[in-house]
Specification:
4-stranded antiparallel β-sheet; Rossmann fold; 6-stranded parallel β-sheet; Alpha-Beta Plaits; alpha/beta; about 325 residues; Helix Hairpins
């Protein structure tokens, strides 16, 4: 592929292709003028004809154009061939540069990687989507590390087994890591992560019972199956159980509290400044129903119970 050549080589090759095309056009012009149209011809006219034709200017001075049947067909085919060389060469010359600019623009728009107290999701799959939804609901920062990491989330493209990628994910300041790859990938990821952060809370997904002990020896704090992990994440949605096993394992120093607000009825969450005083309000019990992720403007009513996610002592 021409586009894989260095820029200097592509430029030289493009110039040679254009010059060759002009020479071929000039040669054909001379042969048709002399052998078919029986006219005298100069080198200047031949080169002029070639350049004007492939540049699509469409204007030939008197006596320069080819007026015979063969000459007209030659002009048509030479024009098509010349345009192919010009535009194909320009694409090969500028294509890699344009592609690089587009990639740079896309990378600049990617969501930045959190700096500290975040969760590293090592591996991207349907389980990762569930975990990301839960972390976003709890307002907990995270970053996904995977070869096919989503571009619209905080992410790093690369294997989570490689030390360089975990360092880029700020693992030394991370709160937890969730390993979601296959058993072999999880084992290597955990060993690498543990070397970089000995205090890190690590949860690993196990695909069979036989590897649980191996993963724990690698440095995992908690080993769970796929079903156990999803169940613990979604338990509060289906059971009204707000003691979340998943969040508890990751955030051992954080707790969920219930806070009755009868005396604050008629005021909004924003007016009470709950986030600064108590913690993040993630839900409200109201008349036996759960209102999740309430907006700061929501006005509280008598009997409401706030569910507050906060740091432990």
């Amino acid at each position: 592929m021409i586009s894989s050549f260095p820029l200097k080589n592509r430029l030289i090759l493009f110039i040679l292709m254009v010059l060759t095309t002009i020479l071929l056009g000039s040669l054909g012009y001379v042969l048709i003028k002399i052998l078919v149209e029986h006219e005298s011809v100069s080198l200047t006219d031949a080169i002029y004809f070639s350049v004007v034709t492939i540049s699509t200017l469409g204007y030939y001075p008197s006596g320069v154009s080819l007026h015979s049947e063969i000459g007209k067909w030659f002009t048509i085919f030479y024009l098509i061939f010349g345009l192919g060389v010009i535009f194909g060469g320009i694409q090969a010359l500028l294509g890699p540069w344009i592609e690089l600019k587009v990639k740079s623009a896309v990378q600049e728009k990617k969501v930045p990687v959190p700096q500290d107290a975040h969760v590293i999701i090592a591996g991207y799959n349907d389980v990762a989507d569930v975990i990301m939804d839960e972390l976003e609901f709890l307002d907990i920062p995270f970053v996904v590390v995977d070869d096919n990491a989503p571009a619209d989330k905080p992410s790093l493209n690369g294997k989570p087994t490689e030390m360089e990628n975990l360092i880029k994910a700020n693992i030394e300041r991370a709160r937890a890591l969730v390993a979601l790859g296959d058993n072999e990938m999880n084992a290597v990821t955990v060993i690498t992560a543990r070397k970089l952060n000995k205090k890190l809370n690590i949860i690993a997904l196990s695909h069979n019972e036989g590897v649980k002990d191996i993963l724990k020896k690698c440095g995992v704090n908690v080993v769970v199956s796929r079903d156990e992990l999803i169940s613990s994440i979604l338990s509060h949605w289906i059971k009204n159980d707000f003691v979340q096993a998943f969040a508890g394992e990751i955030f051992k120093d954080m707790v969920l509290e219930e806070h009755r607000v009868d005396k604050y009825a008629g005021k909004s969450i924003m007016e009470l400044n709950m986030r600064e005083k108590k913690g993040l309000v993630i839900g409200i019990y109201r008349n036996g129903q759960l209102l999740v992720n309430p907006q700061p403007e929501m006005v509280l009513k008598k009997g409401d119970i706030l569910l507050i996610f906060k740091g432990g002592a």
